[in-house]
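Q: I have 297 residues here and want to know how they pack in 3D. Can you give me a structure?
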Amino acid sequence: MSAQTTTYNKFATTIATSAALTIAIALDAPQSIAFSLVQEDLYFGRNIAGIGEVSEGQFQAFVDTTITPRFPDGLTIFNANGQFLNSSGLLVAEPAKVVSLYLENTPDSEVSISEIVGTYRQQFAQESVLQVVNKDDLKVSFGLGEDLFVNNSTPELIQADLFFGRNIPGGGEVSTSQFEGFVDNVITPRFPAGLTVLDADGQFLDSTGTTIKEPSKVVSLIFEDTLVNETSINQIVTAYVQQFNQKSILTVVDEEISVRFVESQPIPTPSSTIGLLLFGTLAIALRLKKKNSGTHC
């Protein structure tokens, strides 16, 4: 796949639901992580030339045997649809998986990434795996009431992703309707302008070294870095922990983003006192990350 021409849609509007295979809910991690973190996204095409495609079972086995042993604390895998121009100039569409990792910015981590990419290419006869690295200032938290981000005197837009595990200790899980009620009653009143909800299956390493899997929800928010909004995030986390007997909620904050809102053109109407009326305005938040494009391995 071409790094320049491959496109994958992680689509987000007011509330969007997307299927994710695995997401990190590291319940037994320390209260905060002090070392430098980067976000690395790996784009795995699933077409196998002349044979078929990498099945769900095959990809899950690849995650279990190749990725998880190298990054056991947790990871995220999104279902995606890819397209690229091949060497003949033809547009090729294919199903894909996008693996998102938060990892230490160390040479060892990069060696592990290279091993994962090399194994996938060899095992499934792939020409390449697209890597995209975000080396912006990321902050990851598993605690309650932490100082999550800098409150600038002039508010700036930031992104916060909240990872909600749905298993309830002692049995059962948070149902879809229960989570929707939580969004409606707890999150939306604090952030009414918009949010994104992603479906996910989570995996994390517990205190005994066992990988635990659970269904999860991910809520992604873009808002100004004010003290009021920081307080609201902490209130949301506290409410979910108390309501559904959770140990912790993973919160990832990225303060280095650029956002724009694209609106529809105003439609003239004679009855308007100013002669213009915005009709059916569509606001789409486009996250334009300052990313360092990774290797096209």
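Q: Anything worth noting?
A: Confidence is low (pLDDT under 50) at residues 1-34, 269-297. The domain at 34-135 is CATH 3.30.70.120 (Alpha-Beta Plaits).
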